[in-house]
Amino acid sequence: MTAAALPLAAAHTAPKIDSKIAGVQIGAQSYSFRDRPMDKAIEAFQACGLGECEMWQGHVEPQGQGAGAREELRKWRLTTPLEHFAKVRKQWDDAGIMLYAYNLSFSDDFSDDEIDRGFQMAKLMGVKAITASSTLSAAKRVAPFADKHKMIVAMHGHDNLTDPNQFAKPESFAAAMQMSKYFWINLDIGHFVSAGYDPVAYIQEHHDHIATLHIKDRNKAHANLPFGQGETPIKEVLQVLKKNKWPIPANIEYEYRGDDSVAEVKKCYQYMKEALA
């Protein structure tokens, strides 16, 4: 009976989606599909033909609001059975999509137990790295847990140059990488341009410590725009990955205003294909 059931079970697993273009792994941050729950986000990846995902924590965790929501979230993180996160991984595997990273943004109000639990979740999801929109003060507390679990945490940068606790300047990333050998970089090339820096030069210098890229188009006035309409050198970034064969996933992060997230992510993907031609 068991042997007979195996082919039927296998039939539910979709073939792996290949979205590697000219040797460059293209995927998406699932935040691009923040307008829908995780199962529908998986369908959106399939519709777009994207086979690699950096998963936004909002697709895993409950999204409560109002008084008491923070404590409820803390309780959920600490008490949800760990096998739940293995099941999350299986959903993506069954859809033919590689779950490459988990985006869990450690903030200053995380307890030590929450931090530790975050690494346990990520391990059960089988990801290669955690990405985090964090702060330098939170990073100091996360560092010993990264060392303990021997897992990469890639810090995500924005473009807030006025707050020294935020990741925006190259010096902020350098400071984090001094805290732990497991601290790497999740470079958002759009924010990096908005902050006044050159992502191509930065990637060339630090490619061996960049876990993932966020691909978006922004200008120096801090506006998100459709690909090709801003000041972000998307084509040049993709070409430098292609030329050097650096195994850094280039993940679409759809944030500009559009009518339909699937249609817009498809446009972003097509732009990247053409940029790599």
Which oligomerization state do the chains in this entry correspond to? single chain
Distance between the termini: 50 Å
The domain tally reads 1
The CATH architecture comes to Alpha-Beta Barrel
Tell me the strand percentage band: 15-25%
Defining traits:
single chain, TIM Barrel, 8-stranded parallel β-barrel, two-stranded antiparallel sheet, 11 strands, 44% helix
Molecular structure report:
The termini are far apart. With 277 residues, this protein is α/β, with parallel strands linked by helices. It contains 11 helices and 11 strands. 42% of the residues are buried. The N terminus is likely disordered. It has one domain: Alpha-Beta Barrel (TIM Barrel).
